[in-house]
From TrEMBL:
This is Soluble pyridine nucleotide transhydrogenase. The lineage of its organism: Bacteria, Pseudomonadati, Planctomycetota, Planctomycetia, Planctomycetales. Its EC number is 1.6.1.1. Its cofactor is FAD. Gene3D superfamilies: 3.30.390.30, FAD/NAD(P)-binding domain (3.50.50.60). FAD binds at residues 51, 309. GO terms for cellular component: cytosol.
Length: 498
């Protein structure tokens, strides 16, 4: 069977690439391991389940309004894993249906089975009805990643588990050690701490989530500690042992041993490439199973492309979708236009979002910047939403007033960041936020308040500059000379008239 493009993997990258190619009138095949896996890790193990679970936790614990209604207003006293999974199944079912319908409507041919290269242009699919060989003028590898599972870690899916297995836990544990404080580790750690689980996070690095703004992460850590979470940074985990059936001990390189009744092991993900037989296509994955590609997403073999998590950074669903579209435009010589700015949304509790540079980066790069900040406690919508601790920071250039970065923590942070992203993409300045009118009461008001704060700081700064100018004028050499002469005159003994 001959196709214009054969796509391996139906996650965000593969799915969006397939739709984009079919819109160009191309003959498209997409391969996925099993029908219920359509939508990829994103829909079944990663983004969607974790975010749905988070939402269920916020709802069932009454988290958003705990300050006003107190903990007795929890919607459910004893929350179970089944409760958390209830919504998850519902969301996954709907999303799966949407993806399947979209592909079918657009005439994309779906093949269910394990894909494997047999030559640079041919992919074999081993499915229920036997082996089929698909020929592609172009081939896209969008097979994503799986959790890193080193052989010395005794995973059992119950006491010691990875982030794919966590959603299938039978019970909510009483205590949990999270090994790896990356995005996945921290998102799950805070979710379970919100449920009342005693959580300890271990990470080999000295600082948590180093790519984020430090002030924002400090606020996150402060909140996490208020939930009883413990952070042990700079601790390399060297071994984990299960004992007494339901307990596990974690050993660190520094000699510490920590015990809990569950361990979430999440130290990164590796490319899902084992089954692909890359050699037959003339490709080779790196040591983490990732596939190298250039900016146009072409691998060493020009008609084979890579997109999504299999190509590494930034490994986000949002970006994977764009990469899929980009591959199709490049393959079929269509112009591709996109903004470079990429937002990050961390669905911690509270959530965090950012776009552009951090204060640390701007300082390192010696860029003169100023900060306008708004605290949710000053915003009516913050009070209404039950979040008085959130904040939004706008970083902007002191001279050009151009926006350089937006950082937010708190309710709706992952949504409101897009307002700043848009203004940044269009080369806007902080003046925009001072002059714009936003719906009231909304979280968007943060931008206005932050802009006023910025202009307040700028006016203080101007006062300082003016004072320096005045000082410089009074200290100017001509005046100093004149002053000296006057002083000399004053010092001259008075002439005595005889
Ligand atoms: C816990 C967690 C939370 C996350 N949260 C977020 C978030 O909030 N926001 C965000 O933007 N990103 C998030 N991500 C990242 C996001 O899920 C990924 O960036 C995204 O899923 C990558 O999409 P993809 O298209 O590369 O492939 P994937 O979604 O990984 O899908 C790849 C598909 O390829 C299939 N496949 C692999 N090999 C074969 C083969 N040989 N034959 C047939 N099929 C094959 C797999 O079965 C799978 O269905 C999260 C990830 C995890 C793990
Ligand atoms: N909201 C989101 O956008 C979101 C959410 C979840 C995941 N993701 C994506 O998934 C990707 C994978 O996330 P991740 O958290 O698995 O990986 P990661 O690489 O971000 O984090 C792994 C962490 O484990 C630590 N670590 C590694 N080995 C260790 C050891 N032996 N002992 C102690 N600590 C150790 C590392 O220092 C690192 O901090 C991310 O890159 C991210 O893009 C995104």
């Amino acid at each position: 069977m001959k196709y214009d493009i054969v796509i391996i993997g139906s996650g965000p990258a593969g799915h969006k690439a397939a739709i984009a190619a079919s819109k160009l009138g191309k003959r498209v095949a997409i391969i996925e391991r099993n029908f219920r896996g359509m939508g990829g890790v994103c829909l079944h193990k990663g983004t969607i389940p974790s975010k749905t679970m988070r939402e269920a936790i916020l709802y069932l614990t009454g988290y958003r309004h705990r300050d006003v209604y107190s903990k007795w207003y929890r919607r459910k006293r004893r929350i179970t894993m089944q409760d958390l999974r209830l919504k998850l199944a519902d969301v996954a079912e709907h999303e799966l249906e949407i993806i399947h319908d979209q592909l079918e409507r657009n005439g994309v041919e779906i093949f269910i089975g394990e894909a494997q290269f047999v030559s640079p242009h041919e992919v074999a699919v081993d499915g229920e009805t036997g082996r089929k060989i698909l020929y592609g003028d172009h081939i896209l590898v969008a097979t994503g990643t799986k959790p890193s599972r080193p052989p010395h870690i005794p995973f059992d899916g119950k006491t010691i588990f990875d982030s794919d297995e966590i959603i299938d836990l039978k019970e909510i544990p009483r205590s949990m050690i999270v090994v790896g404080g990356g995005v996945i580790g921290i998102e799950y750690a805070i979710m379970f701490a919100t449920l009342g689980v005693e959580v300890t996070v271990l990470d080999g690095r000295e600082h948590l989530l180093e790519f984020c703004d430090r002030e924002i992460i400090d606020a996150l850590i402060h909140h996490a500690r208020s939930l009883g979470m413990v952070f042990r940074m700079g601790e390399e985990v060297v071994g984990i042992e299960r004992f007494s059936d339901t307990m596990a001990a974690v050993q660190t390189e520094s000699g510490k041993r920590l015990v809990a009744d569950s361990v979430l092991y999440t130290v990164g993900r590796v490319g899902d490439a084992d089954e692909l037989n890359f050699q037959a296509a003339g490709l080779e994955p790196d040591e983490r199973g990732r596939l190298w590609c250039n900016e146009e997403h072409q691998t060493w073999v020009p008609h084979i492309y890579g997109a999504g998590d299999i190509v590494g950074f930034p490994a986000l669903a949002s970006v994977s979708m764009e990469q899929g579209r980009r591959v199709v435009c490049n393959a079929f010589n269509e112009p591709f236009e996109a903004f470079d700015l990429m937002p990050y949304g961390l669905f911690t509790i509270p959530e965090i979002s950012m776009v552009g540079k951090t204060e640390q980066q701007l300082t390192e790069e010696h860029i003169p910047y100023e900060v306008g900040a708004a605290r949710y406690r000053e915003i009516a919508r913050g009070q209404i939403s039950g979040d008085r601790d959130g904040m939004l920071k706008i970083l902007f250039h002191r001279e050009t007033l151009k926006i350089l970065g937006i950082h937010a923590i708190g309710e709706s942070a992952t949504e409101i960041v897009h307002i700043g992203q848009t203004v940044m993409s269009l080369d806007g300045t902080i003046e925009y936020f001072r002059n714009a009118v936003f719906n009231y009461p909304t979280m968007a008001e943060c931008y206005k308040v932050a802009a006023f704060d910025a202009f307040e700081k700028m006016s203080l700064d101007r006062l300082f500059e003016e004072s320096q100018l005045t000082k410089a004028n009074t200290d100017s050499p001509a005046e100093t000379e004149a002053e000296e002469v006057n002083q000399a005159e004053l010092d001259e003994p008075e002439a005595v008239e005889v």
